[in-house]
Amino acid sequence: RKEVEQDPGPFNVPEGATVAFNCTYSNSASQSFFWYRQDCRKEPKLLMSVYSSGNEDGRFTAQLNRASQYISLLIRDSKLSDSATYLCVVNDRGGKLIFGQGTELSVKP
Amino acid sequence: DVKVTQSSRYLVKRTGEKVFLECVQDMDHENMFWYRQDPGLGLRLIYFSYDVKMKEKGDIPEGYSVSREKKERFSLILESASTNQTSMYLCASSFQGQDYTGELFFGEGSRLTVL
Predict the structure, then answer these.
(1) Contact criterion met (CB < 8 Å) for A49 and B101
(2) Residue B100: what pLDDT?
(3) Number of neighbours of residue A60 by Cβ within 10 angstroms
(4) Three-class SS of residue A109?
(5) For residue B97, with 0-12 CB atoms within 10 Å meaning exposed, 13-18 middle and 19 or more buried, which class applies?
(6) Of A59, A71, A77, B30, which is the most buried if we count CB atoms within 10 A?
(7) Is the pLDDT of residue B98 over 50?
(8) What is the pLDDT of residue B95?
(9) CA–CA separation, B90 and B9 (whole Å)
(10) CA–CA distance from B99 to each of B48, B106, B113 (Å)?
C-alpha cells in the first residue's frame, strides 16, 4: 500500500462547478498534512495546510479525518485558473514530506 | 521571496557518465531535499539534509549520492548515469524549527535525459 494515495484523475469540470479531491495516508502517526498545487511544467507550491478542525481559504476548504486517515480538498466555484495537479502531502517523519502522486484537475469554459 | 535555483533546466547525458545537479537556496534554510518526479509515481524522495555535511537517505537513494559542504548548496550526484534515471529532478528547501509549516520551496526542476 502506498503511503499517500490519491485518485489521479483527470477530473474534468465546467467553470463554476464544485469539485472534491480525496487522499488517504497509511501511517496513523503522521503529524501534519498539506495540499500543494503544481501547474503544468512548473514546480509544486504550497496551497494550504490541513488542520484537524478543518480550514478554509476563500474557495478552498481542506478537511482532515484522523480516525479514517483521510484528507480532502474542496474547491467551490471552479475557475479556469484552478486547472493544475493537486498534491496531497503528509509530514510522516518529522520534517520529511511524503507526496501523493497528485490529482489532475481540468476546468473547462 | 525565497529563491531555490537549480543549475540546469535540461540535460542530456550518456549512459555511464557522471552527472552533477546543483541546487542553491538563498533563505538560510536548514533543510534541503532532492526529489525525482515521474508520471504516475509522483514525487519520490532521494536524499535530504538537515545541516551542513549531514545527509540522510530517502526512499530511493540507490544510484545517487549527495553533497552538502555549505548550508546554501545541496548537490545530487549520479556516479554512473543509467537510462532509468531519466526523470525530472526537483530540489527543495525549508526551515527547521518550532514554526515549521511544512512549506517546501522548490526549484524549477532539472529535466535529465540519459541516452
Answers:
(1) yes
(2) 55
(3) 17
(4) coil
(5) exposed
(6) A71
(7) no
(8) 84
(9) 10
(10) 20, 19, 38
